[in-house]
Design brief:
Layout (H helix, E strand, L loop, with lengths): L7 E4 L6 E4 L13 H5 L5 E4 L20 E2 L13 E12 L2 E5 L11 E9 L5 E8 L7 E3 L5 E14 L10 E7 L1
Antiparallel strand pairs: 1-2, 3-5, 4-11, 5-10, 6-9, 6-11, 7-8, 7-10
Organism: Blastopirellula sediminis
Keywords: Signal
Protein name: Discoidin domain-containing protein
Length: about 180
């Protein structure tokens, strides 16, 4: 069973460990305004392949990157599955940018990361309007997607893991800290 997080968390990078205080959650990690998630808050539908009890898909859209969506045990690309998380808007929207923040939830930051994934923007019929397969990169293993032109008529945004660290932790799962959409 998972334990409750401590007030201080250690994140290890290639260089030296960094301590994050609990109040660091309020500091912006990206300049993505998350405008579409904020605009439709309370009207969004969340879905996913699976989730660990009390770590459901809504946590990937709660505007708190220190609370994460975690898959159920063995729902990880490392075990041959394709875990996914999605948000559905109540009407068509125009998407300019999606930022996917890697899991930051204390104390499970290491070994739960999605390394390669597919972002899909779907219309109301479920047809793919835009997709991008990419390595998740950067210091915190985040993924930034900015289509060349805004994508209109988007109803659902789905992210699927194709390569992850699900076999690198004792729970055999993976997580996403936040999906931000503007």
């Amino acid at each position: 069973m998972r334990m409750l997080p401590l007030c201080l968390t250690m994140i290890c990078f290639a260089s030296a460990p960094i301590l994050l205080a609990a109040d660091d959650a309020a500091k912006p990690l990206t300049d993505n305004s998350n405008g579409l998630i904020k605009e439709f808050q309370g009207k969004l539908k969340f879905s996913c392949s699976t989730f660990w009890p009390t770590w459901g898909p809504e946590l990937a859209f709660d505007q708190n990157p220190y609370k994460s969506w975690f898959t159920a045990r063995r729902d990880a690309a490392a075990f041959g599955t394709k875990p996914w998380v999605a948000v559905e808007f109540p009407q068509d929207v125009t998407v300019r940018r999606v930022t996917i923040l890697a899991n930051r939830e204390p104390p499970w930051q290491i070994g739960y990361t999605i390394l390669v994934g597919r972002l899909e923007l779907l219309n109301a019929k479920g047809e793919v309007l835009y997709q991008r397969d990419d390595e998740v990169g950067g210091e915190r293993l985040d993924m930034e997607v900015r289509p060349r032109k805004p994508i209109e008529g988007v109803r659902t945004i789905r992210f699927t893991s194709h390569k992850d660290e699900g076999d690198q932790n004792p729970y055999d799962d993976v997580a996403i800290g936040e999906m931000m959409v503007e």
